[in-house]
Amino acid sequence: MKQHGIFSSWTQLGFFTSFLFLLVAIPYTIYIKATTQQKVVIVNLPQPTRIVHAALPITPPPASTTTDCIAVPPRYTYPAATPAAYLFQDITRQVCFPPALPPFPFTWQAYTDFQSGFTLDTPKNWIKSTTLVDGIQEQIFAADTGSTSATVSLRLQEGQDPYATDTSYLQMPIHRDNHTGVVYTKNASFIAAIFPLTAGNFILAASRMDTSLYAFEHMLDSLKFL
């Protein structure tokens, strides 16, 4: 009887211990399972992605003698287009199409630099002058259009691209005659195209006046590398 009593006590203690274990183990197992499931859910959540504006369907405007600009979202990027279009950032970001028709009477003549390896049309009826900018010879073509003077400049600069590290410029790739270059624009007043050549960087720059932009675009279209 005494042994039976001890056995009963041990049995009761065992049941009590098992009960305590289950009280602790079951919630802990549920917690582990829930935590594991939660981690799986977190791992499988889609990661945030960088928002980039896709190219909107922009229809080139009808041919005219003026620069036509279309407002676009702040982070909009514009792909290569025909006719050419360029991004400008002033108060708003705009896609601007240079005049397709001459806003000024033009006559053209070929200018060839065999040493540097390029040829292009230049406005024959504009005033041509040469100046030094930071020790670099620059050719300037200017036309008196009445109220203001339209200018386009051309130079060959050795060393690094002078605009590449300046974040205030917008950058767009440009392709001409199997060469890849960069177009830079700043505010609503400046545009430049740069092509790296063996002799240095070919740089064509202009203001964003209608006459200047038309000349700039015509000169780029006629550009050939020798």
Feature tags:
disordered N terminus, about 230 residues, 2 domains, 3-stranded antiparallel sheet, 13 strands, 7-stranded antiparallel sheet, about 25% helix, Protein Transport Mog1p, Chain A, alpha+beta
Task: Reconstruct the topology from this structure.
Elements: H1 2-43, E1 68-72, E2 86-89, E3 93-97, E4 108-113, E5 118-123, E6 127-133, E7 136-144, E8 149-157, E9 170-176, E10 179-186, E11 190-197, E12 200-207, H2 210-222, E13 224-225
Antiparallel strand pairs: 1-3, 2-3, 4-5, 5-13, 6-7, 7-8, 8-12, 9-10, 10-11, 11-12
Radius of gyration: 35 Å
How much of the sequence lies in strands comes to: 35-45%
Shape call? globular
Number of domains: 2
Q: Would you identify the regions where 5 or more consecutive residues have pLDDT less than 50?
A: 1-11, 26-54
Describe the main β-sheet briefly.
7 strands, antiparallel
* End-to-end separation: 116 Å
Order of SSEs, N→C? Answer: HEEEEEEEEEEEEHE
Q: Number of helix segments?
A: 2
Strand tally, please? 13
CATH architecture of the largest domain: 3-Layer(aba) Sandwich
Q: Looking at CATH, which topology of the largest domain would you report?
A: Protein Transport Mog1p, Chain A
Strand order of the largest sheet: 6-7-8-12-11-10-9
Helix content: 10-25%
The level 1 CATH classification of the largest domain is Alpha Beta
Round the mean pLDDT to the nearest integer and report it. Answer: 75
The helix/strand class is alpha+beta
Oligomer: single chain
